[in-house]
Write a structure and sequence with these properties.
Layout (H helix, E strand, L loop, with lengths): L1 E10 L7 E2 L5 E7 L6 E7 L4 E9 L5 E10 L7 E9 L8 E5 L4 E6 L2 E7 L5 E4 L3 H6 L9 E2 L3 E7 L8 E11 L2 H13 L2 H17 L9 H17 L28 H13 L3 H14 L24 H18 L2 H20 L20
Antiparallel strand pairs: 1-2, 1-7, 3-4, 4-5, 5-6, 6-14, 7-13, 8-9, 8-12, 9-10, 10-14, 11-13
Length: 381
Amino acid sequence: HIDSMHAGVFFAGSRYSTVWLHSEDFSHSQRYIFDTNILETVCTLRNGSLKVIQLDYVLPEKEVLVRSYQLENTGDRCIEPGIVLFSSLISTNPDLRSTFFDFDTDSLIFYSHKYYISFSSKSESYQFQLGNNAYEAAGSSELCGNDSIGMISDAAVSWKLGCINPGEKRTFTLNICASDTLKGVKGLARSTRDSDTALDYENTKKYWHFFLRNARQINTGRSDIDNLYKRSLLVFKLMADKRAGGLLAAPEIDEEFTRCGRYAYCWLRDAAFITGALDRCGLTETVDKFYKWAVKVQDDDGVWHQRYHIDGNLGPSWGIQIDETGTAIWGMLEHFKATNNIGFLREMWGSVKKAVDFLTGFMDPETGLPAPSFDLWEERF
């Protein structure tokens, strides 16, 4: 949904003082907070006067991405910084993208049909601007909010943080909320404004720690292997749709597909091997959800098509690959072997029977071999 999004630091009373955090004026390092999916990005101004620690995490039970900035004055004089944010959204429908500044929730909101994304903070905003070269205006450290709503794709908003003495730190928290309605996104903005940010952070850490504790534990005696195992589990969790149950092959954000392999779909073949790994790791509940999802997306004739969107709709396809259907059946059997849950087999049986009927009917009568279909790289028929 995001064409571009840039945050920067400006200094009150100085025109053209904005320094973008992604620019070469800063040096950068990144890591995950240990045993979590909370990302820490450290941006250090090369002149030695400012250090910014950015934390990104999604609240476990809300459609909210929290982005926390801690600014430390590492120079020798008092500074009066602010945060400025420029964004261009919503990219799924470029012809009818709209933006408005909602004074009720003090939020910058981008929307298009059923997609609403807001940017807000507990701190009161300082300035905003919709369109009219908003990126250049943000770079000049002066925003002019003449219009509060329009069919505009880009906008900027800023917040002042007050004076920070040498050696002192100041924290600013940005809440990015998502909903399919205006009322929904405004409700999220209000709830995050009234929430305890420190408690939200601790609860998010506990969520990930609890997830890992409920998985199979290993201790090889080598911390690099043990940490890689836990990081893999955390990645598995991010690839699984908590509500629907689908498993994503790989995350992608390049909608023009010029820098990626087009893997942001669910293949039953890939997913069956992923569920095998999840079972070995003790994450059997995620596997249960996936195969319930698989039953729902199976076609009436018993086949599973090449690939699917995570919501269960059919993805772009080259044609039938019968190993998709065969591997799904194998995956169900492997899951039963891991859990010994006869109720799972009963629940899957109708789907299994349809799939086997399809496979036994998809045969070359002369050779007794399966009829031709595409290989897994779509190179041969």
